[in-house]
Amino acid sequence: MSTWATESAMQTPVLQINSLSAFYGELRAIHDINLTLHRGDVLAIIGANGAGKSTLLRSLSGLMTHGSRSHLRGSIELFGERAETWRPEEIVNAGFALVPEGRRLFTRMTVEDNLLAGAYLPRCRPLIPQRLEEIYTLFPRLRERRQQVVSQMSGGEQQMVSIGRALMSSPSLIAFDELSLGLSPAMVDEIYQNLRRIITQGTTAIIIEQDLKRALSSCTRFCVMLEGSIVLEGKPGEVSEDDITAAYFGTMKENGDD
Amino acid sequence: MTDDMYWFAIDLLNGILSGAMLGGYYALISVGLALNFGVMKLVNLSHGDWLIVAAYLCVTMLTATGLAPFWAPLVVVPIMYCIGYGVQRGLLNHVSSHAAERRNLPPVYGLMLPLLVTFGLSIVLSQGMLIVFSADAATIRNQWSYSAIRLSPDLSISTLKFGFFIAAAVLLAGLATWLKRTHIGRAIRAASDDPEIAALMGMRTTHIYAVASGVALASASIAGFMIGMSRSFQPFDGAPFLLLAFGVVILGGLGSVFGSLIGGVVLGIVQVLAGTYFGPAAQQVAGYLLILLVLAVRPQGLLARK
User: Fold this and answer.
1) Chain B hits for A164, Cβ within 8 Å
2) Pairing state of beta strands A204-209 and A221-226?
3) Around Cβ B156, how many Cβ atoms within 10 Å?
4) Of the candidates A67, A98, A107, which has its C-beta nearest B200's C-beta?
5) pLDDT reading at A1 higher than 60
6) The CATH number of A12-95+172-179+198-248 is which of 3.55.40.20, 3.30.40.10, 3.40.50.300, 1.10.510.10?
7) Cα separation of B295 and B301, whole Å?
8) Nearest chain A residue (CA) to B197
9) Looking at beta carbons, which residues of chain A come within 8 Å of B101?
10) Mean pLDDT score of chain B
11) Chain B residues with CB-CB distance to A109 below 8 A
């Protein structure tokens, strides 16, 4: 129906970023980022090390806002509300969860304790049994090892815990930072298969990935970051892989029409 | 069995028993310090003075109401919890190593600020007690101070210390369970592991730290009550208890609840046995020698795996 289509187009974006810059002290790590994400979008952010991808996610999760070492300029609207001054606790409460780079689990705690830590917020607690069951169905291996201390587990299993922990807060927007870093190809395949199952449930997602092919095969939109800015945006299939590679390495020709 | 051997065995058994009983009391004196260190990486030099503050609050409350001694903790524990929460939120959170990092201060400030501030707090507390309560020794009068439970004609343990041991074991088990099973306990462990990620889970670390500090002072107030029950004390008696707590925490491994109990029991037994065989002066010396030995050989504590 056309009326429904207009309504959905007019829906509040899940995330709207306007001319966002983030600084570490004097150093500007990202500049003038503009992005809009609608419900169901899966955005892959592609870029080399140091391109500002993780800084962008840190900015969105509130980690750049408080403290004198880093600050933001510009605006972030999360689910229609201005969020650039929010604390990380407020942002996760609003429905944004981050699977951080390097997994960052609570290493001395068990699998289940890590997952339960993800459901700390009062709004998440009534859903704990249901969410736990979903996560254990998604990653049966975690059910077997739920009483194991996470530091004794393999990197791939730890990554599953990290994803599960983020899912425990029932996020409407979830970001994955470098999921495949340091994992075996087989493990990465397994994790990406599950990722597709998570994302098809209607969640909006941001994926940061160095592996171009994998990123393009799991997203609905992508952008390429270079030296703190977005240099190329598009949908997979619309842009040739050569152009994306060129943007990635900063060897893109100026063609003047964007 | 010869007489000599019998008395040797009795001395040893008495020493181990009363040392172990003393250990429960030591563990409660120390667990607050262990919690502060384990969760906030805070070395709280005012810990000993808070014990004495709690002991004075107990005496004051009992003198004012005339109730039986065991009512005192019921009133003093919540008061001390609130004080602990407030001091952490209002003062210590702003001078922690995290705060120093946030304010972009060099790492040496992160190390020194909490030490200096809690040292200052210790002076303020002891001088404050001197003004409010004067230098006279105080104690909680009770009928159990000198009574003992006889296990055999030659074997006995102090009723009070036995009660303390049971209470300490129950309270520490409760504390460990609380840390393990509740949402806030899990948050305390998470925040001690990685505060930044804890914040990403929706945990407000300033609140979490304040709760941990409140619980630390709540446990210290029960220890303070025990101090008041078993001996007399004065405003400046905090420092020796701080040293004792350091010893227990070092023995048990920094920052573990169960470690505090083990550390307390080991220290208690060593002290009492040294006292039995080498005279009262050896008691303190043996304790500190043990601590030095552990620091030299197993700086991670007796229990730690790595």
Assistant:
1) none
2) unpaired
3) 16
4) A98
5) no
6) 3.40.50.300
7) 8
8) A104
9) 67, 69
10) 91
11) 186, 189-190, 193
Structure tokens at A217: 């095969």
Question: In Å, how far is A168's CA from the nearest CA of chain B?
Answer: 9
**A4 Cβ neighbours under 8 A, 6+ residues apart:** none
ipTM, two decimals, is 0.88
Q: Which of A89, A104, A170 to mutate to test the interface with B (most CBs of B within 10 A)?
A: A89
Q: What is the pTM of this model?
A: 0.90
CA–CA gap between residue A147 and residue A37 (Å, rounded): 38
Q: Which amino acid is at B294?
A: V
Q: How far does the CA of residue B35 sit from the closest CA of chain A (Å)?
A: 16
Separation CA A73–CA A33 (nearest Å): 10
CA distance A53 to A57: 7
A-interface mutation test, from B39, B178, B197, B201, most A Cβ less than 10 A away: B201
Contact yes or no for B190 and A100 at CB 8 A: no
Q: How far is A160 from chain B (nearest CA, A)?
A: 16
Confidence of residue B166 (pLDDT cuts 50, 70, 90): very high
How big is the A-B interface in CB pairs under 8 Å?
75
Q: How far apart (Å, rounded) are the C-alpha atoms in residues A38 and B18?
A: 69
Fold of the CATH domain B3-297: ABC transporter involved in vitamin B12 uptake, BtuC (1.10.3470)
SS3 assignment, position A96 = strand
On the question of pLDDT at A5 being above 60, the answer is no
The 10s digit of each residue's pLDDT in A130-170 is 999 999 999 999 999 999 999 999 999 999 999 999 999 99
- Per-residue pLDDT reduced to its tens digit, A30-73: 999 999 999 989 999 998 888 999 999 999 999 988 766 788 99
DSSP bridge partners of A30:
A22
Task: Provide the residue ranges of all domains of chain A, joining segments of one domain with +.
Answer: 12-95+172-179+198-248, 103-170
Express each pLDDT in B18-64 by its tens digit.
999 999 999 999 999 999 998 888 899 999 999 999 999 999 999 99
Say yes or no for a CB contact (<8 Å) between A165 and B201: yes
From the list A89, A113, A169, the residue facing B199 with the nearest CB is A89
Sorted by where each begins, the domain ranges of chain B are 3-297
Q: What is the mean pLDDT of residues B116-138?
A: 95
